[in-house]
Specification:
The protein has one domain (about 1-174): Rossmann fold. Helix content is about 45%, strand content about 25%. It has helices at about 15-25, 60-70, 95-110, 130-140, 150-174; strands at about 1-10, 30-35, 50-55, 60, 80-85, 120-125, 125, 145-150. A hairpin with a 2-residue loop joins strand 3 and strand 4 (about 60). Helix 1 packs across helix 5 (about 150-174). The radius of gyration is 16 Å and the shape is elongated.
């Protein structure tokens, strides 16, 4: 199948997740284009979509949300998987409870434009400079950690599941 993996990123960790998903889909025989949501001009030319965004304040970046809204008619009757890249892996202490609330909040906004086959929330990269001096102090004080929390195995497993679903769709269509 011809698949578009599109992403909105703030600091680059979402690009890495999108690229890894695309690599796995290609390894399973799918034709895959990977692009920033701001550069997609031919969304109608794909059989399936995997779209993701970095998450700030429990919401997709404006460019990612705008892409879903703008392209929603092209997603009708085509499978769409969504992924978000946020903070869950970096949260400890009292913030850990907050992590469980992030995914429902994210999906509440996205479902206005698309009904995904599935959504996954992955952890990304959190660096002190991303939060500013005061934000970094507060984040660390309440139990936040800095580092690269992307779980490549979980990302690859999810992409493999998508590849299998796409193969099933192809088989059924024949």
């Amino acid at each position: 199948m011809k698949v578009l993996v599109a992403y909105a990123t703030a600091a680059g960790s979402t690009v890495g997740v999108a690229q890894r998903i695309a690599e796995v889909l290609r390894a399973h025989g799918h034709v895959v284009a990977t692009s920033s949501v701001d550069q997609v001009t031919d969304a109608e030319n794909y059989d399936a979509y995997v779209v993701g965004s970095a998450v700030h304040d429990q919401a997709w970046l404006p460019s990612g949300a705008a892409f879903l809204s703008r392209e929603r008619r092209k997603f009708v009757d085509k499978p769409v998987w969504l992924f978000s890249v946020g903070l869950p892996g970096s949260l400890h202490g009292p913030l850990r409870k907050w992590a469980g609330l992030e995914e429902p909040a994210i999906l509440a906004h996205l479902r206005e434009d698309v009904t995904p086959v599935e959504h996954r929330l992955f952890s990304g990269v959190v660096r002190a400079e991303m939060l500013g001096k005061f934000g970094a102090l507060v984040f660390r004080a309440v139990g936040g950690r800095f580092g690269d929390f992307r779980d490549w195995q979980a990302i690859e497993q999810w992409a493999t599941t998508i590849a299998g679903a796409l193969a099933d769709i192809e088989t059924t269509a024949r």
